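The instructor's notes for this session suggest beginning with a concrete chain rather than abstract definitions. Hand out the sequence below and ask the class to guess, before any prediction is shown, which regions might be ordered.
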Amino acid sequence: MLVAVALLPMALAAVAGQHHALALLAAGVCAGIAITGLLIFESTAHSDRIRHHEKPHLLSDSYVPAPPWARRARALRRTGRRGL
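After discussion, reveal the predicted structure:
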């Protein structure tokens, strides 16, 4: 997405300098990168909603479940009881 943000002023500068071919190229690449970025974000958010995750994990490629001892400790904290 940062590349798309950088290409937008380049396209506008090309239009101002009467370089229409470069302006079309920069605008097309800018739009393509922006659309690709939005599709990647939406597909990740959609798969996270299907898997019932709390929030989108865009940079994480695996979801490591909490170990059994951590799940037990969290359940005990919620109920207010002590272990054993």
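Then share the key points. The chain has a mean pLDDT of 80. Residues 37 and 76 are 41 Å apart (CA to CA).
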